[in-house]
UniProtKB/TrEMBL annotation:
Annotated keywords: Decarboxylase, Lyase, Pyridoxal phosphate
GO molecular function terms noted in the UniProt entry: aspartate 1-decarboxylase activity; pyridoxal phosphate binding
EC number: 4.1.1.11
Cofactor(s) this protein requires: pyridoxal 5'-phosphate
Main function: Catalyzes the decarboxylation of L-aspartate to produce beta-alanine.
Gene from which the chain derives: mfnA
Reaction catalysed by this enzyme: L-aspartate + H(+) = beta-alanine + CO2
Protein name: Probable L-aspartate decarboxylase
Modified residues (N6-(pyridoxal phosphate)lysine): K207
Amino acid sequence: MQRSVPQTFDRVLSSMCTEPHPAARRAAERYLATNPGDPSTYTEVAALEADAVDTLGEITSLAEPHGYVTSGGTEANVQAVRAARNRLRDRTNPNVVAPESAHFSFNKAADVLDVELRLVPTDEDHRADLSAVRAAVDEETILVVGVAGSTEFGRVDPVPELAAIAHDAGAFCHVDAAWGGFLLPFTDHAWSFAHAPVDSLTVDPHKCGQACIPAGGLLFRERAGLDALAVETPYLESTSQATLTGTRSGAGVASAAAAMDELWPDGYRREYDRASALADWFADELRERGFGVVDPELPLVAAEVPEPAFDALREREWRISRTASGLLRVVCMPHVTRGTLSSFLSDLDAVR
Ligand SMILES: *Cc1c(COP(=O)(O)O)cnc(C)c1O
């Protein structure tokens, strides 16, 4: 049997995952055979999870966070919708209002939970259009979603305004900072629990947190948010479970705790500074070559690269992807260096 080898990160430019921090790798291996889904048996990893949630609270400016380490942003977003649905059971035809830049996990949430998803247009700079959101919200709305670091353009929605619209309608406000959450503390964007009465938030250690997969994060401002997800667990010593998964990997939990222990806040700040400078440089290089570039706000560059060049770069084994509108997307994750992008530009010059 042929022994397979995973890809290296050398040519991976469009992924939001990265090489985990060495401390995260060690912790993942050590806790591989633990199950935080059964916290009264696996007490050590349960304690690490509590630490991880506390640190995620610090990162998102929430003094007493209620949440857990999810399998990823998808589970966190599905659970945020589920909590809002469960807390507003009086709404008979519940709907969720989100900008069209929202991650496709909200489509899954709507499907699984049988709620209506109202996707509204974004403005010319790819942020939620407030008048469109206002027009879509009604008395059946349970949740208004803001994206803080959108998957395609790295844009941050006007979170305080979205929270106000949500609360005026008696609905909850959820911020999806799955990718942006470990970058935004070092910016002056208004996105976190401190900036607006946000009710719940997604922030993924397995993206910019440099933890191992699977490690997402879901936080609620109020205990009632998490409680709305709890079901009774008859055969376990712990009496209830709020997670969507049952048995889950202690590797993700332990690696998240270890990565944040190593990197929060100085390591993440250094990486934010490095990646931002790299994205600005790369955007300039593309502009000088005559490509249309979407100004990077967070370290993610989208550019108009013609299809034949894109295809030729894929053939040269660059792992790149396109936005829905066909733009090349380069995400400046920790493994993406100036050397990587210089050699990408040389290939681009050769194929265009
Ligand atoms: C990546 C991402 C998700 C999905 O997270 P997974 O960990 O892939 O499930 C959700 N929202 C945003 C904004 C993302 O960038």
